[in-house]
Amino acid sequence: MNWYRSLQQNLEERGLDMSLVIPAYTLSTAASYPTQLHEAVESLRYLVETEARDPGDIVVSGDSAGANLLCGLVSHMLHPHPSIMPFQLTAPLRATVFASPWVSFRDDTESYKTNEHNDLLCTPTLRSFHQSWVEKKQYDNYNHPIQADSEWWSGADKLARDTLVWIGGGEVLLDSAQEWAQKYKSAVPNAEIIVTPKDPHDAFLFEPLFGYKEPGLGTKAIKAWVASKL
């Protein structure tokens, strides 16, 4: 929450107005997949259909597991999930932002070794998180985006005018995030992929918690990108 308020204040200083909508989805300890995806879809549906908000004024952002949900949301708009009511936009979103996307539950990639002592995340924690949310037999393109091929994302370029994928170069998730990002970019050619060297997972969220007085390069890059699209 503090990060998004900081982003809002940064935009206000640039003369840009932005309202925040932060849906509270059900944690995996209380409900498993696809509950959270259903809630994400209904949140966007509410803004567009009930509140009559212009999709062209909406930036949808997700970090970590939230970026996983954003992948699922995009997938649902392209290929409706069988247990969730279909949803179609009336116009493209202003932008989508995938930050530190958790797109794969594999933990045997090289970056898990090379960034083991640089990142905040660790293998046991990630295993516990995803095993409480989705069983391996339930892996699909909605909750495990890495397994979707490039063709699956065809049409995603029509869902948002601009797209950012931000990844920390020091994340254990680096390899899988980059692999997914390249497949996504093949369907969304104008998607911008920014990898900030040495930054850990969700660096922009943890900098203020760890007492950093100045934002890091990744934080500055995300804020500047969002400001340029409003």
Strand order across the largest sheet? 1-2-3-4
**How far apart lie the N and C ends?**
20 Å
Count, helices:
8
Number of strands: 4
Query: What pattern of helices and strands is seen along the backbone?
Result: HHEHEHHEHEHH
Q: How large is the share of residues in beta strands?
A: 5-15%
Q: What integer value in Å does the Rg equal? A: 17 Å
Shape: globular
Structural class: alpha/beta
**Helix content bin:** 40-55%
In this structure, how is the largest beta sheet organized?
Answer: 4 strands, parallel
Q: Which residues form runs of ≥5 with pLDDT under 50?
A: none
Structural write-up:
This protein is an alpha/beta fold and about 230 residues long. Helices cover about 40% and strands about 10% of the residues. The chain is built from eight helices and four strands, in the order ααβαβααβαβαα. A four-stranded parallel sheet has the order 1-2-3-4, sandwiched between helices. Helix 6 links the parallel strand 3 and strand 4. The protein is globular and about 45 Å long.
Spell out the key features of this protein.
alpha/beta, 40% helix, 4-stranded parallel beta sheet, 230 residues, 8 helices, globular, 4 strands
At a glance:
The protein is of the alpha/beta class and 230 residues long. Helices cover 40% and strands 11% of the residues.
